[in-house]
Amino acid sequence: MNFPSASRKGGLSPSRRLSGARGQTAFYLSWRLRNRRSLFSAVAFLFLSATLVLADPLIVGSKKFTESYVLAEIAKRSLEKAGIKVEHRQGMGGTIILWEALRGGGIDVYPEYTGTIAEEVLKQPGASIAQIRNGLSAQGITMTDDLGFNNTYALVMRRDQSERLGLRTISDLRAHRELKFGLTHEFLERRDGWRPLSERYQLAPAEVVAIDHALGYSALAKGEIDVKDAYSTDAKIADYGLVTLIDDLHFFPQYKAVFLYRKTLSPQATHALNDLSNSIDEARMIHLNSEAERTKNYAAAAQQFFGTTDSAITTPFVSETFRNKLLRWVTRHLELAGISLLLAIVVGVPLGIIASRGGVIGHAILGITGVIQTIPSLALLALLVPLPFFGISARTAIVALFLYGLLPIVRNTATGLQDIPRPLRESAIALGLTAGQRLRKIFLPLASRSILAGIKTSAVINIGTATLAALIGAGGLGEPIISGLNLNDHVTILEGAIPAALLALLVQFFFDLLDRVLIPRGLRL
Amino acid sequence: MNALVHFRAVTKRFGDDFAIRELNLEIERGTITALIGPSGCGKSTILRLIVGLVTADSGEIQFDGEKIAAETIMKIRRRLGYVIQDGGLFPHLTARHNLALQPRLFRKRRDDIENRITELCQLTKFPSSGLDRYPLELSGGQRQRVSLMRALMLSPELLLLDEPFAALDPLVRMNLQRDLKEICARLEQTVLLVTHDLAEAAFLGDEIALMNEGRIVQRGSIADLRAKPADEFVREFISAQRGLVQL
């Protein structure tokens, strides 16, 4: 069934362009092998192909924590019951990335919380539900009624410690500056997070460290930290025997769970989403979260929500075998790293040749590629996502990886050419060869060892960095690593980390073989 | 009148230092001229100006009546052979490919190239079994023979040799000097040789041009230089190397 979404009105909106990206990259690779046309037309094709329109599933996004995954799965199931084709891009980088993707059309639906919308998205702290609806509407976004529970921020402690110290409320913390706080990066930076909270409650703990949400729970259990921020429906609060400190000054705003979706969604889809309002209370949500974390399977937890008697589900849940998953991750990973490496070579070698001539332009090229390297990868992704051409897609990941891959190739090409001894350089000139002939026949072969070493470095870096593509839902071996981090589950992390490490070794080995083919024998004596 | 190379009041500076100043020089066809002098006297610069690796600050250089300039240099280079101290062979190419590189890019026929290589192997006494070796697999003397062959591939009108034997051991050097003399005689080759070794200049050169501080101080045969030194510098330079000349 063809789902009448935004594609009808805007066939070239970013979401339509990116939704076919996965199939197209595979097609692109095989096309490359069949037709040995110039690399430039290949690159042109890559970008053109992105504008083609294929059959579009509706895309549901989620943030990288359990509840977001489960709610997205529930939305997916509800939409599928209405006969709509759905894809779940799971575990994307954070509020800003999901919001920009929704606004740009990269995704169509994602679960969010009213407090976050008011504070972070609309920048109207304390806005009423009506004000929030108005603010969203102005940006082409609608929200469902709340799903039935309030998942607000909370501060949690170990039960034994809170009882020993007699701590019940956040205000009680004021007298215990020695307690060590371990807070998530997002909470530390939020407008309704740590800074205003500590001002309101006059808290000045001796030590505050930043720590990943899931890792923070095990740090808290081990006593490495004493207080941590949590979501009030976190399954781990019960699992680890923690207590929630009472927000006695009513600092935290309401965080009612809702689905945000694009106004252009079809009536059936809108209906399917709104059917979910007021259907999940706090106890139910905690139970689903804990099921998801126990079984390591979000889809199965979402299934529980609908109950086993429900036979109307169009695509019954089937657990994907590990082999299939691994194959999917590795293929995707190689696609991301391979295409970006190819682009980096096509662009990097000519830039390296220009840079080898020195001068203002040469220094500028080396300087700029060097600066790009210093941008943290998550920051680079967050910068690219809001741009109209990119959004949440493999394309964004490929461009980021391409940018990271440039420096080693550019620098090694430039130094390889600069290191050619002057007598050889002059002999080539004295033979009466043109600049182009000198470059092709003499200088590039002489610099081949250095250039290949640069390409090898880029390839290995790309294999490693490509794990971050999962943060923007582009898949690859980062998928298990990120969900593993989120679940604090070492086995799942290793499911991604070990293949990624093996892949890096394999790539290294492959390039060592390539050296023997591509570096002229006379240079290897 | 009909000099192959003609320098007219040529000056070349590197920063504040004069490499050559107000230099006049003519090279006649069919002669071997040896440029000699202490290091830094500007003798290599003369070759580099002809090849166009550096350009003159003032004055004019003509090759076969044509002014050496940016527009003419590519054509002129194809009429020159240039051999430097360590040969300048490209390490990624075998001896054969080093030889064939230039004629192939100038679209010479494949069998013509092969014939020329065979011919030059005989002339330079280079064993053809060495043709498929890479430069690093050849001895220093063999490398210089290949380098000389490469310079002679297109039958250049002028052969420029910049200290071609300086890095070789004495026995190898002597053999090569003898062979070179024979080759040049047979080809009636016009040669401009740069050396710091008076014995080599005397043995190979029809004429010696002794240079000091960017100028030619005296030009003539070794006998002229010894009998009638133009100034104190010439006398000292000759006597400093006398022991060798008596060989």
How many distinct helices of chain A?
24
Distance between the termini of chain A: 64 Å
- Kindly report the spatial arrangement of strands forming the biggest sheet of chain B: 6-7-8-3-9-10
- How many β-strand runs of chain A? 10
Number of beta strands of chain B:
10
Beta percentage of chain A is 5-15%
Helix and strand composition category of chain B: alpha/beta
The CA-CA distance between the termini of chain B, in Å, is 36 Å
Uncertain residue segments of chain B:
none
Entry summary:
The complex is a heterodimer of chains A (525) and B (247). Chain A has 24 helices and 10 strands.
Describe what this molecule looks like in 3D.
The complex is a heterodimer of chains A (525) and B (247). With 525 residues, chain A is an alpha/beta fold. In chain A, 58% of the residues lie in helices and 9% in strands. Chain A contains 24 helices and ten strands. A five-stranded mixed beta sheet of chain A has the order 7-6-8-5-9. In chain A, α14 (282-295) runs antiparallel to α15 (298-306). The longest helix of chain A is centred in the middle third of the chain and has 35 residues, at 322-356. Chain A starts with 13 loop residues before the first helix and ends in a 7-residue tail after the last helix. In chain B, β4 (58-63) and β5 form a beta hairpin. The two termini of chain B are 36 Å apart. With 247 residues, chain B is α/β, with parallel strands linked by helices. The radius of gyration of chain B is 18 Å and the shape is globular. The relative contact order of chain B is 0.17. Chain B contains ten helices and ten strands. Chain A binds chain B through residues 423-424, 426-434, 437, 441-442, 445-446, 448, 520-523, 525, and chain B through 51-53, 74, 77-78, 80, 82, 84-86, 88-94, 101-102, 105-106, 134-137, 150.
